[in-house]
Design a protein that fits this description.
single chain, 133 residues, Helix Hairpins, two-stranded antiparallel ribbon, two-stranded antiparallel sheet, 4 strands, Prefoldin_subunit_alpha, Prefoldin
């Protein structure tokens, strides 16, 4: 009888470990993965827009959103240089080819991070499976 109670108690501790620790860690990794995927989508969208901008004639006719979906016509006299947000409030003025290279490096970094998070998630799922079995 004591052995059965000890086994039940041990099972309860394992289940608590799975739900309190491993499931929480897995959710955190999945949230980070989702955030990385969103950043990758933004980088790819920006890369596509800059690629099209390379082919645009100068001066570039566009519309600028002033806020609240209020647009005004604008003319960019020299679309060959743009400002790129580097993070932490820093910006760099880059040529379009430099900006495209920057985005390619950023995408590679995000891909490595995504792969790392995928491996972490697989390890956690394997631990959950192992504990449950």
């Amino acid at each position: 009888r004591r052995a059965a109670m000890a086994a039940a108690e041990k099972t309860q501790r394992y289940e608590s470990f799975v739900s309190d620790v491993l499931q929480r860690d897995l959710r955190r990794v999945q949230e980070q993965q989702d955030e990385v995927w969103q950043q990758q989508a933004q980088v790819l969208q920006l890369h596509s827009a800059l690629s099209r901008l390379l082919e645009a004639p100068a001066p570039l006719q566009t519309k600028v959103d002033l806020g609240c979906n209020f647009f005004v016509a604008a003319e960019v006299t020299d679309p060959r240089r743009i400002f790129v947000a580097l993070g932490f409030g820093f910006f760099a003025e880059l040529t379009l080819p430099e900006a495209l290279r920057h985005l390619e490096r950023r995408n590679q970094l995000l891909q490595r991070l995504s792969n790392s998070l995928s491996r972490d998630g697989a390890k956690i799922r394997a631990h959950i499976r192992l504990v449950l079995e």
